[in-house]
Each structure stands twice: as structure tokens, then as C-alpha cells.
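On clarity, I found the account of how folds are encoded harder to follow than it need be. For illustration, here is how one protein appears when written out as sequence plus C-alpha cells.
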Amino acid sequence: MENNAKNKNKEIWYIAWALIIVGALVATTQAMKPKGLEITWRRVAMDGHFSGVKPLSANNLDVALGTFSDSGYVAPAGKFYAKDTPMYAEASLVLEAQSKMAEKKKVIGHSARVMSNDRDNPDLPLGNLFVDVMRAYASKYFKQPMDFAITNFGGIRVPMPEGEILQDDIESMLPFKNYLCFVKMKGENLTKLFEQLSGTTAFQPISGATVRVKDHKLESALVGGKPIDPKKEYNVATIDFLLDGGDQLRIGALADKVTLSHVLLKEIMLDYVKDCEAKGIVIDSQPDGRVVMED
């Protein structure tokens, strides 16, 4: 009996030590597990000193990637690759694709700074710029002054670069088919919209209003510098994506009237950038306190 008790105690100790070792191994494995990658976006100058390849533009496609003949491919640095080599095949594919992208490589404007996009910050230069431009365009297009405008952060996919702006930059920023809309909305429903936005984690880009939010509750909202009149009908510019469920908003349900258009937000921004370039204007934007959120 005594031996059985001793053996049983040994088993308990073995099990206990085994659990301790397994626990230590699990903890060590978790500590050593690589964390999620943090990816940031920036534009860098192309380095082609090995091959002689130059940055592609709309005007240098015939020489930037080198030349092709019946026998093979000659890189700009002078190295020859026969037709049966992988380099020839890949260079051919790149050249074919780039020739079709020539229009998108044109410089259409200039920007004073890199302008980024961040859902956690509702008062950023890029969002402010886009929604202000959309509101101004809508006033002309629908031939009525827009009191207010709202778009969405999620539709802006990459930052505005500093310096030269290519057509491809704007199309990459706004790749979705978001169409301009005109909504008539009573003040009481506009207040409901602000209350909805206040309760979300991302207050979408707005124009024509100043809003203060505390603890995810609306504290105050001014449109055109004045308190919202519950009975007044306001003209609102927005995009079709936000009319019925996009980013958890249903602006259409709050509207008295909705007018759709066939104008993409991308087209509005392309026109704006090209117009600024024609007038010699370098595009810039700043935070201006239009939305203040406090925890």
C-alpha cells in the first residue's frame, strides 16, 4: 500500500511538471510568434541603375523600358536578352501593359504635401479636400447651393502624393463607382444623421458644418455657421453608396427627395486637379476643426 501511495505521488508530480513545461513552451511560442505586419505607403524614386530603365511617363514609353527586335530585347543599359529568355517575356508584358496605361501616367497637377487618410481622425486634409470639392461641384451641377456635403473615408484608398500628381494617383485614390447624389432633407433628420455619425467609430468627411462630439454623443452641430432649424429643408450632396447602408448609413431613409447623377466622385476630382493645374494652383488642404471628437 505504501509503495502504491509513493507511486501515485510520483505520477502526480510528473503530471504537474509536464503541465508546467507545456505551459512554459506555449508562453514562449506565443511570445516568439511574429506580430502582424504594419504597412505604410510612400512614393519612392525609381532606381534603375542596374538595367538603365527609367521612370515611365506618357512620353517615354518607347525608350524607358528598352527596345525590342526580332532576335530579342535590349535593356536601356545595353544588355541583350534572347527571345527565349524569361527577361524578354517579362519585359514584353510590362511594355504592353504600360503602353495601355500611357494616359494614366500624365502629370495632371501638383500637391504641396502628402495628404493621408485615417478613419480615426475625422478632420484630415485629404477628406476635407475631397468633400469640399464635391460640395462645390454639386452646387454647380444641380444648380442649387449645397448647404452640406458628406462622403466616406473608405472610398479614399491611398494618400495624395507630394509634388507631381498623376492621373493614376487620383484613379487609385477613388477606385470605386461612387456616384454624386443630391438629397433634400429636413433639419430634424439632418440632426439624426449627425447623431448616427457621432455614435460610430469613424465620423465621415463633411463640408458646410461644424460638429462637436463627446463620448460618442452629439453635443452641437452648426450648418452654415447657424444652429440647425428642424423644419427647414437642407440641400445635401453625397454619394449613392451612403444612401442605403454603406458604412452603416442610410441617408436615403432620412431624405424627402433624392436625385441621382451619372457623375463619379473620381471624375469630379480629376476635373478639379486639372483645373488647378491650368490655373497654376498647387493643391493644399489643412485640418480646420470642422469635427471635434472627445472621449
